From TrEMBL:
Keywords: Oxidoreductase. The keyword DNA repair does not apply. Gene3D superfamilies: NAD(P)-binding Rossmann-like Domain. GO terms for molecular function: oxidoreductase activity. This is Short-chain dehydrogenase/reductase. Coiled coil: none annotated. It comes from the Eukaryota. It comes from Aspergillus calidoustus. Pfam families: adh_short. InterPro entries: NAD(P)-bd_dom_sf, SDR_fam, Sec_Metab_Biosynth_Oxidored. The lineage of its organism: Eukaryota, Fungi, Dikarya, Ascomycota, Pezizomycotina.
């Protein structure tokens, strides 16, 4: 386990990259995304921050807090229904019009639901889109800015081997499982279990494909542990009450939200520096809540042998072409 003190010490080194680091937080108006944005603003010098979400009122309150935390920060809200890929494209264009680099991209959008397949107007399941397709679309769109950040000379001036460019998808590294290869979008085989396994496994495989092609960028898939966030907001009051009771009972085993934010900033900025393993090998970092490696290598190793990663990434690009062209 990486101690919280070590995490905070590593995060404090963020200042070595100098002023003007750019962070994009998808799902940044609540939960883990918001907590990670707070940690980023706390440690960075004059950071530029984009919070991507739905709730403008909530975002305004967070922005006020962040600018109090670091008066030199510049924080903007980009309203976006992340469950629609065309809206994701619009949000990315808003960022690209203003920034030529993105140093940190944190993806934590998601829903906790007991519904069956909930198809969007674009023909994808809402949960699978939030947990996988939309996140990959943000990465694909912002690759030029991430590449620019990874080769930016300020990182070299600060004594770093390269500039800071990192992508973190907050989901469930280690929870990889079998894929239904003939139905990756789960149009015919949808269940909540299949949706979870597909989102998790396709994330790890796609990040590996991206890491192979983009060695200047660190790609991280995390398992955050049990964290009390706002994901219960879409449930009815009775279900919310029961879930809150369970969370109260499980409190000794939960990760405090503030600590989770610190650890996810560490995942973005500290893990790639702390671990030589995987550096330049074309592999993403699969990380548990405590900073230790995590991943179902039995599943991933088999899929590497069978070259399933390229199949998943081609499917993802085909979905993008169909919807976004």
């Amino acid at each position: 386990m990486v101690s919280l003190d070590a995490v905070k010490q590593s995060n404090a080194d963020l200042k070595d990259y100098g002023p003007g680091l750019v962070g994009v937080f998808v799902g940044g108006t609540s939960g883990i995304g918001e907590a990670t944005a707070r940690s980023f603003v706390k440690y960075a010098i004059a950071p530029i921050v984009y919070l991507i979400g739905r709730n403008e009122t909530q975002a305004a309150e967070i922005i006020e807090d962040l600018q109090t935390l670091n008066p030199e920060s510049r924080v903007s809200f980009v309203q976006c229904d992340v469950s629609l890929l065309r809206r994701v494209d619009e949000a990315c264009r808003t960022i690209q019009e203003k920034e030529d680099k993105v140093n940190v991209l944190v993806l934590s959008s998601g829903i906790f639901t007991t519904k069956g397949r909930d198809e969007t107007s674009e023909g994808l399941d809402k949960k699978l889109t939030l947990h996988y397709y939309a996140r990959m679309r943000f990465i694909s769109n912002l690759l030029p800015q991430l590449i620019s950040a990874g080769t930016w000379l300020n990182g070299l001036v600060a004594g770093k081997s390269r500039g800071l460019a990192s992508v973190v998808s907050v989901l469930e590294a280690g929870g990889e499982g079998p894929l239904i290869l003939e139905d990756l979008a789960l149009k015919e085989n949808y269940s909540l279990k299949n949706c979870a396994k597909h989102a998790i496994t396709m994330t790890s495989l796609s990040l590996e494909e991206l890491a192979k092609a983009n060695p200047a960028i660190s790609f991280v898939h995390t398992y955050p542990g049990v964290v009390r966030t706002g994901l219960l907001r879409d449930f009815n009051p009775v279900t919310q009450f029961l879930m809150n009771v369970l969370l109260f009972i499980a409190k000794p085993w939960t990760v405090p939200l503030e600590d989770c934010g610190e650890r996810h900033l560490f995942a973005a900025t500290g893990v790639p520096r702390a671990r030589a393993i995987g550096e330049g090998s074309g592999r993403p970092y699969l990380v548990s809540w405590d900073g230790e490696p995590r991943g179902n290598q039995n599943v991933l190793g088999l899929y590497r042998e069978k070259k399933i990663g390229p199949v998943v990434w081609k499917h993802t690009q085909d979905v993008f072409r169909r919807i976004c062209s």
